[in-house]
């Protein structure tokens, strides 16, 4: 354990310098930013040009159930008429809280008990958290609860005033299916950009030492650790990248609430430590916790452009970084080889 911690520390310290050294070399940071702008710009143009035909078939499918959602919303809207703030907090606090703690309650059960084996066999770092250290977990939970209730709670109030000033998030009509999809795509792009750069900033040695080191205490993360962070980091790196999209686009409460739930569940999956069948792969961010200086973003787009996934792409974890569509754990189908440095 101590050897591993020392080795991790060396990688951690060397890593920050190493990555910043690379970025200023040939094809430096500015060049990468231009490339990122080009790729993201092209993506937006592509969506604008082909978005309609891409979603037309989905829209037809949605049409049958579209009325169902509008009727449901109308009932809520009428029930809460004149109480927009209550409706807003129900959507942006209660629903995401249920999504986060619901998924994490299941994961915590597995982490604490080390059972059932049909889940634990999908563990990424096989020798870790088996079961999780109770004292370390208790300490993390205190911080997670503080961040979730106090910091995220306060941010939701701020967002309510910003969105009310910007428009009417609790309007009587739901957004169209096309618009909701476009919004979710825009939120995701913005999250990738804001999370990647703020996260890399927190890896600058001086900021890392005071703020981000806390999140990296978990070299093998578990679900709740997704919001185990210094409060300042929680605001800048976790909350701002997620709430900026709905505020900038003046979104409806329905898409905002859905987006918060998606963001919280997907960060939980990224940290959960199990590569489960038919769920998004958590290998990318798990590798970030293992190696510190790789895989800073959410989707890996900016890591590819900035070359901050170079070691990841040579690893076994990269080979396993795929949607698992069978019940055979990837540790078995793609086992570790004898070679070191994977
Ligand atoms: Zn993390
Ligand atoms: Zn980090």
UniProtKB/TrEMBL annotation:
Stretch list, region Disordered: 1-26
Top-level lineage group: Eukaryota
Transmembrane segment boundaries: 36-58, 98-119, 140-162, 177-197
Compartment(s): Membrane
Provenance organism: Oreochromis aureus (Israeli tilapia)
Swiss-Prot/TrEMBL GO biological process terms: lipid biosynthetic process
GO molecular function: iron ion binding; oxidoreductase activity
Protein name in UniProt: Fatty acid hydroxylase domain-containing protein
Pfam families in the record: FA_hydroxylase
Bias (Low complexity) ranges: 1-23
């Amino acid at each position: 354990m101590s050897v591993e911690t020392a080795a991790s520390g060396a990688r951690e310290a060397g890593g920050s310098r190493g990555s910043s050294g690379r970025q200023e070399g040939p094809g430096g940071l500015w060049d990468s930013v231009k490339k990122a702008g080009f790729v993201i710009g092209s993506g937006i143009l592509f969506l604008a040009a082909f978005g309609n035909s891409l979603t037309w078939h989905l829209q037809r499918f949605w049409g049958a159930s579209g009325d169902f959602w509008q009727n449901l919303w109308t009932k809520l809207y009428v029930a809460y008429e004149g109480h927009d703030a209550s409706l807003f907090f129900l959507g942006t606090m209660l629903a995401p809280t249920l999504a986060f703690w619901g998924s994490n309650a299941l994961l915590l059960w597995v982490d604490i008990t080390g059972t059932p084996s049909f889940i634990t066999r999908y563990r990424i770092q096989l020798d870790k958290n088996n079961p999780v250290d109770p004292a370390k977990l208790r300490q993390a939970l205190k911080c997670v609860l503080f961040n979730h209730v106090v910091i995220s709670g306060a941010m939701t109030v701020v967002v309510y005033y910003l969105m009310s000033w910007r428009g009417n998030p609790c309007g009587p009509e739901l957004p169209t299916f096309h618009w909701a999809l476009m919004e979710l795509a825009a939120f995701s792009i913005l999250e990738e950009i804001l999370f990647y750069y703020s996260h890399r900033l927190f890896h600058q040695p001086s900021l890392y030492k005071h703020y981000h080191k806390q999140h990296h205490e978990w070299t093998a993360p578990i679900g709740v650790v997704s919001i185990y962070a210094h409060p300042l980091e929680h605001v800048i790196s976790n909350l701002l990248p997620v709430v900026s999209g709905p505020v900038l686009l003046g979104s409806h409460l329905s898409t905002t609430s859905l987006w918060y739930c998606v963001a919280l569940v997907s960060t939980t999956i990224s940290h959960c430590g199990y590569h489960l069948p038919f769920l998004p792969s958590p290998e990318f961010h798990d590798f970030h916790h293992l190696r510190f200086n790789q895989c800073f973003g959410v989707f890996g787009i900016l890591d590819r452009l900035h070359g901050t996934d170079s070691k990841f792409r040579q690893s076994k974890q990269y080979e396993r970084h795929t949607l698992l569509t069978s019940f055979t754990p990837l540790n078995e189908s793609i086992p570790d080889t004898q070679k070191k440095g994977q």
